Amino acid sequence: MSIESLTFDDTSILNSKMMEVSMEVQKVIANNLANAETPGYTRLKLDFQNSLSKAVKSGSISEVENLDPELVEDTTNAPGLDGNNVSVTLEMNEMMQNSVFYNLLNRAFKTRMGILKSAIRG
Predict the structure, then answer these.
(1) Domain count, the chain
(2) How much is the mean pLDDT over the chain?
(3) What is the model's pTM?
(4) Which residue segment(s) compose the domain that 117 sits in?
């Protein structure tokens, strides 16, 4: 078994992809917050849950690696008088949840690398 197969296995690839998606989610949330006062602005979100589920169920790690979240308009919130449907409270809540998710993924990655380092050192 090579060191490359330990560090670039399916779990590591999935973890890395999810960290990448989480960073993109953070950018979209920041964009929504920046446009919270822009008349006519429609909230955006990254839609990746369905495609991630399909990629994982397929058992093909290449599908996970090639996962490309779709940026979509979110019209679930009713727009205000100015036509803007961004809720600062909702965005802040999603930002906090996304931050916790990213930190958990980062911790999992660091723990995994720590275990590998310990195993190599003996």
Answers:
(1) 1
(2) 88
(3) 0.83
(4) 3-121
